[in-house]
Structure of Hydantoin racemase:
Amino acid sequence: MIRIWVVNPNTTASMTEGIGRCANAVAGPGTEITAVTSRSGPPSIESHYDEAMSVPGLLDAIASGEQAGADGYVVACFGDPGLDAAREVATGPVIGIAEAAMHTASHLGRGFSVVTTLARTTGRAAELAERYGMQRFCLGIHACEIPVLDLETDPTAQKVVTEACRDAVERDGSDAIVLGCAGMAEMCRAISAEVGVPVVDGVTAATLTVQSLVTMGLTTGKRGEYAPPPPKQYL
């Protein structure tokens, strides 16, 4: 049995439920998914401040997963908050959804476009594309200007995201779309059918990446930077 904890770093349980459904939809028959809502932090993550405030809750969830015997983790926020710190404290692999989505999309064509929520988050997506070596594949980053929590409540949200994806494909000449928010995960197949290109949801991509790494017996290297942090008392 492979036990994967999919951690939503915000505190909105309804969003976690959708994330869990997407992860379970692709998990293999020998994989158990536990979708976890952070116990502290912001209700949505839409700024650098939100990301910073989400990290303690994320690390607390990772610590709980370690006690429960989790084999690997998904950080289910497109900013991949706290990813390096999580890799220090987890014994199994930890994958961020932006990291997984961009790498997956790079296998599907010459280039992809990212469609995310608010324009203020596009800079973070660009930073991550650079960090992950995806600059030559990432042809554009576009915002649909829908706040994260409105993805669940606004009846026009999927239509707006779909049109943003269609516009991105036409403007950038991209072969695939990366959805830039975990809250968009359940829209993935419908958008792909409408727009006519592969659409990658980071939750499913990260879940399958963790599952593959655990199956291969691989985990984060602990010799250097990702060694456990030095023991000390935190106030």
